[in-house]
Queue: 2 jobs
Job 1
Amino acid sequence: MEKVILVRYGEIILKGLNRPMFEDRLIKNIKQSLYGLGKISVRRSQARIFIEPRQDDFDFENAVTRLVNVMGIISVSIVWKIKTDFEEIKKHSVEMVRNYMTKLNRHAAAKGPMRMKETSEASVGFKVEAKRGNKNFPIQSPEICRQLGGYLLKNVPGLKVDVHDPDFIFYVEVRDSTYIYCDIIPAFGGLPVGTSGKAMLLLSGGIDSPVAGWMMAKRGMELEAVHFHTYPYTSERAKDKVIALARILSRYCHRIRLHIVPFTEIQLDINDKCPEEHLTVLMRRAMMKISEKIAAENGAKALITGESLGQVASQTVEAIAVTNEAVRMPVFRPLIGMDKNEVIETARRIDTYETSILPYEDCCTVFVAKHPKTRPGLEEIKELEGRLSLDAMIERAIADTETVVIGE
Ligand code: ATP
Ligand code: MG
């Protein structure tokens, strides 16, 4: 018996002639994510990927924790690879189900004495699901289920058959080798990072922008990020928070180059020369222009922001139109139609939420207008922009940008 990891991927299958490119990238990303865990061989077979450790002390749990964050993967299972021989299958199935029952009981025990009593008295419902990929195997799938189910019932105490609402499913896949397992651990799906080009994420310290970046990484985009820092109005701590958020995002896309742009001069100049009600939109336009330049320098083909329609005054359709006019590159706003609670739910799922809600000062909260204009006119905004030496300030900001690489 050999313990291996089975990886399922989905959407890539639809990609026709590009399929090998997607699969190669997925395999590369898988290897990268498992880096440091030990020697492995990664093999593709019939729209599945098998990860076979080449050393005894391989940390399977850790590997699975990393794999579920690899975009393009639908689910993973830790499986036993055994010989395609029915006696072997029966023998190993009993051993695996016994182990699994011990694990279930341990979980129940951890939840308290009441639960343990329940599970030790009642039996655990299960069913067998068999797939016969190897048509030379003499027993057909329904018959495998019937015979193996009966054998398990007889040989593992505490089991009962429950085809409608089982506590667990015992899976058998008969191929050249046979694979057995009890757990399917869901991942995020999507496309492998690196198959959709690169984008520049405008990353603040808030809840929204990390989620926006994650959503585009899920569509296969490699990410770089830009953060605007208004030191000393915003603190070192605010910067550290953004670095922490980029580090969490790097779990999903391996590595992020984060460009930290000094924004104080621009911010103060806008503040000095323009009416308060237009501060945010002017500031946003400057951010977009700088981000577009940094994106072009680094081979990114689009910008990503965490804007959501109507969430704040600067995110009305009119304000977004004026902001958008500052750049030519496509701007992806994946949260545009999401409610705040949906965004928060995703932030929790991807583990950025707890970091995003840590207190910090953002340039938008330091220089905030009491009554921002919700329907700014482009002409008026451009006239105000004319009062600033924006091009020169943008040059200086880019020249003084500090770039940190996050992730291995
Ligand atoms: P977030 O939760 O991402 O901060 P938000 O709802 O608070 O979003 P705003 O603060 O108005 O919205 O910002 C809108 C978008 O502009 C952000 O989602 C982000 O993409 C970008 N942005 C805002 N502030 C910064 C900053 N300091 N550095 C980089 N990008 C920023
Ligand atoms: Mg914000």
Job 2
Amino acid sequence: MTKKFHIYTFGCQMNVHDSEKIAGILSVSDYEFTDSTKKADVIVLNTCNIRQKAEQKFYSELGRLEKIKKDKPALRIAVAGCIAQQKGDVLFNRFPYVDFIFGPDNIDSLQTWIKDITQNTGHVTQTTALRHNPEYHTKILPVSREGRIRAWVSIMYGCDNYCAYCVVPYTRGRERSRPWNDVYKEVNSLVMEGFKEVTLLGQNVNSYGKNLQDYMDFPDLLKIIHEIEGLQRIRFVTSHPRDLSEKLIDTMRNLPKICNHIHLPLQSGSDNILSLMNRGYVYKVYKDKIDILRTAIPDIAITTDIITGFPGETEADFQSTINALTDIKFDGIFAFKYSKRSDTKALYLPDHVDENIVSRRLAEILKIQEIITYKKNKLLEGKTIEVLVEGISETNSDKLTGRTSSNKIVNFCGNEKDIGRLVRINITEAKQHSLFGEII
Ligand code: 5AD
Ligand code: SF4
């Protein structure tokens, strides 16, 4: 009987893509995915510690697994991802029923562990940072992708920015770019498999190439990928506002396959807070870049991340963030309450903000943005927009679903043969989180 595996994924797109790599290795090792933790022979928890909430979710899932392991001692439990990297062996003290701990730069070590699984009865840890495992990011690992139309492709790992709130440089290490010819080859083979869209992944894609022996910057990487015949769309996340260059904006404008969307985390509208956060820009510089983007690409959608209640944030600082939202009118935002993270500089800043105030500020921001997003979506009613059809809608099986180049979800009645095609849709109704339309 085929053995079964289950994966929990707790984090960002990079974490989700890592789960695809983990699933890929398990699949080629003759394991089959199961939804049920009870049926699984191997369970992997791919962790995230960017905020406390994600971390707590992991600990409560892991706690739940103790009983399952008691009932089924042959079950093997592996902890992957950013908490595995940060905590390492220490996790075994609190959770002795965990068998294997491996970091985001050691996913390849799963290959050996799973091969020897019957002999692996003791605790095993693989969390060597990439500088000690330099081949990791040039290795080609099998990947079990979530869909057949859109695919994620890592172009760089780690981060050198050291924003005061962020744990990523301590978990994913220093910034390293993947050789451009490896990225090109991966995209090329995805297109041969039938994928139509790629999203290039990195913590700060705008600084791609810095440490490459065979240098290439991000706009030039986009240019060579754009040449791949059969590829319909290119997306990328995440861009750091400080490194967003005019060359990139020109490239986005000139290359039709690059989607009309940029995710550009602002974090705060207050210069005082931006400085404490070590973001490397002031609001005016950010806003000027938005203006240049909108002049170059008038229908570009811009989304952002906002943190409320960063240490030292006064009502006046918070008001500056609200002013930024009403001034820029983002297409959408991800807003978070500031979360204390170990190792980060922000932990040691004075004037931590009271939890009730942080919650109130977050709610206020979400309410303001809700109206902006809704109004922006409403403007699309009656318009004809190109949509890449991704599949059958999860919420309504009578409908197909896809995305506009600006990354808005559109649901419509259509024929399954359109899946994977670009179709023109007349938008008939706009809602808060998605659009509805008719195929032309
Ligand atoms: N607290 C709250 N939000 C955070 N982010 C990163 N670290 C923290 C933290 N400690 C948010 C930022 C970032 C997004 C991926 O997560 O807004 O852009
Ligand atoms: Fe992604 Fe950061 Fe969470 Fe790691 S800690 S999974 S890099 S968001």
